[in-house]
Amino acid sequence: MQGWYLPEQMAITAYSARWFLPFVLPVCLYVCFTDLREMRITNQAVLVLGAIFLVIGLIALPLPVYGWRLVQLVAVLVLGVMLNAGGAVGAGDAKFAAAAAPFVAGADLRFLLAIFAANLLAAFATHRLVKYTPLKRIAPGWKSWNVGWKFPMGLSLGGTMAIYLILGAIYGQ
């Protein structure tokens, strides 16, 4: 179905990914690090990610697409709040997912979920492996080593966003 906004929104363009990547990548790395170290995604990181989209999105995207991406942010935030209320995800994870949502083209959702699934498995396996090896001595004070069954999802969420934008910058339309 063709709409007045769909052609530009079908998949991420290399142009938009290249605009977003240098600003978003440091935030993603910071989220990975702070969630490993403190088991929390800071509000400042989420607000910076949202601000990056508000400013750079005006340059990187056509105005109708920009508006639809803001709708995505609100939809993911509402879903995240409901999942958090049900205990399925942490509040920081829900807020980060909402702030990251406008960077993702709607047609890329299946691709993004595939990246997330692979990244989650790799991050979980790596985290658990390092937790029980001498490599843990590199960062002995991280809270993520001692929280039982919990896992720092920011490691996978931040990694997924970074991978998505890197692949978009290289292979985007």
SSE arrangement:
Blueprint: H1 6-9, H2 14-38, H3 43-60, H4 63-85, H5 91-100, H6 109-131, H7 153-171
Helix pairs in contact: 2-3, 2-7, 3-5, 4-5, 5-7, 6-7
Describe this structure in words.
- With about 170 residues, this protein is mainly alpha-helical.
- It is built from seven helices and no strands.
- It is globular and about 50 Å long.
- The N terminus is likely disordered.
Run of helices and strands:
HHHHHHH
In helices, the fraction of residues equals over 70%
**How many angstroms separate the termini?**
20 Å
Name the structural class. Answer: mainly alpha
Strand content: under 5%
Q: What count of helical segments does DSSP give?
A: 7
State Rg: 17 Å
The residue-averaged pLDDT reads 93
Poorly predicted regions are: 1-9
Number of strands: 0
- How is the main sheet built? none
The global form is globular
Summary tags:
globular; mainly alpha; 7 helices; 173 residues; disordered N terminus
Compact summary:
This protein is mainly α and 173 residues long. 71% of the residues lie in helices and 0% in strands.
